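Pasting as-is:
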Amino acid sequence: MASLGGELSLDAVPGWGTHIFVELPLTAQEPPSVDALRGLNPRELQVLGPGSGPEGIEAAGVSP
């Protein structure tokens, strides 16, 4: 929820039920920057898959 800029809460009463509240903004969040990948170690980049390493960053037009 936090990555979407929203909130989640619930109100539970034993024997009566539960109310779940989800609040999401109507506006879109800015996509994460490619620079966020620079702080990852090689194993984390491997887990993310092809195109996430330095060559993927360069292909996105960002110099390392």
